[in-house]
Amino acid sequence: MFASAIYAQDFPSRPIRAVIPYGVGGSADVLARVIAPRISAYLGQSLVIDNRGGGAGLPAITLVAKAMPDGYTVLLVASNFASNPILFKKLPYDAVKDFAPVSLIAIVPAVLVVHPGVAINSAKDLIALAKAKPGTLNYGSVGNGSGNHLVTEVFANAAGLQLEHVPYKSAGAFMTDLASGRLTFVFATIPAAHGFITSGRVRALGVSSLKRSSTLPDIPTIAESAIPGFEVNTWLGALVPAGTPQNAVNRLNTAIVDALQIPELRERVKMLGAEPVGSSPAQLAAFLKSELTRWTTLAKTVKFEVSN
Predict the structure, then answer these.
(1) Taking Cα atoms as reference points, which of 215, 282, 274, 216 lies closest to residue 253?
(2) Most buried in the list 27, 98, 248, 249, measured by CB within 10 Å?
């Protein structure tokens, strides 16, 4: 115990691995790579991004849950961390007991985007087209149980739509296929879609937050244009294995919070379509509890597919 205490005081003394349960090009990846240099500068050690997409994030999340609780393995996770318990009958980890919260990094709205060749101009038009051609419109996601899969399921349920789901390994892959016309539409996080929108490779129809995005101020919310009250956002948070020394948790938290207070970094995060947060561990714990409750409640009205 004495040796552990001394070890924690010297934290960090080597590079830290940040495991992302998603592929390259998604919002978690984009945001992580924007803030990583600032966090590294504060800690005096490199923050090494380790993308491990696939399997609804379960393999990567389980990897961190079982990692040495020394602060050198961090999980950067999005909203599907909270929704996985309703999508799988049995998880190889406990979302509450196996992790210690570090900080809520950002809130990230999704944006509904279509291929420019699709002759529609609003979310309401998309709903009408989908109802006229049930089961023929396809959309992409980062896989079953991913954040963009779930927001689309909530959207489809609220509008009474039948859609074809095409799972991918990364947001970059489905955005590329959408831009080339292989998909009809996707709900992508704004950081993942922003470059495609500004270059004209895809067209934005609506955002999933209740308020318009400052990054895309001319794009209406889905709540105002098609489905009143519609709101499904994703988020990015940092966790470490349960049992990680409090000293290490505090150092990581301070590095994240301080980084997100830098005006230039905050502005860059906002330009990507995310809202920087930077919370305390206790605030993230309370947020995760509310998210777990929210998805459990939502599952009573939206019939999500449950896997073994």
Answers:
(1) 282
(2) 27
Structure tokens at 82: 């909270």
Helix (H, G, I), strand (E, B) or coil at 220: coil
Sign of CA dihedral 166, 169, 172, 173: negative
Q: What is the DSSP string of 66-129?
A: TS-SSSSEEEEE-THHHHHHHHBSS-SS-TTTTEEEEEEEEEE-EEEEE-TTS---SHHHHHHH
Cis peptide before 12 (omega within 30 of 0): yes
Q: How far apart are the first and last CA of the chain?
A: 40
Q: Which helix (H) or strand (E) holds 271?
A: helix 263-271
CB atoms within 10 A of CB 114: 24
Spell out the domain ranges in the chain: 2-108+234-298, 110-225
Q: To 5 degrees, how large is the angle CA 244–CA 52–CA 241?
A: 10
**Alpha-carbon gap, residue 254 to 257, rounded angstroms:** 5
CB burial class (10 A; 0-12, 13-18, 19+) of residue 26?
A: buried
Whole-model pTM: value is 0.81
pLDDT in tens, 253-301: 999 999 999 999 999 998 888 889 999 999 999 999 999 998 888 887 7
Q: Which two tokens stand for residue 244?
A: 């990680």
Domain 110-225 maps to which CATH number in 3.40.50.300, 1.20.120.1810, 3.40.190.10, 3.40.50.1980?
Answer: 3.40.190.10
Query: Do 63 and 275 form a contact (C-beta atoms < 8 A)?
Result: no
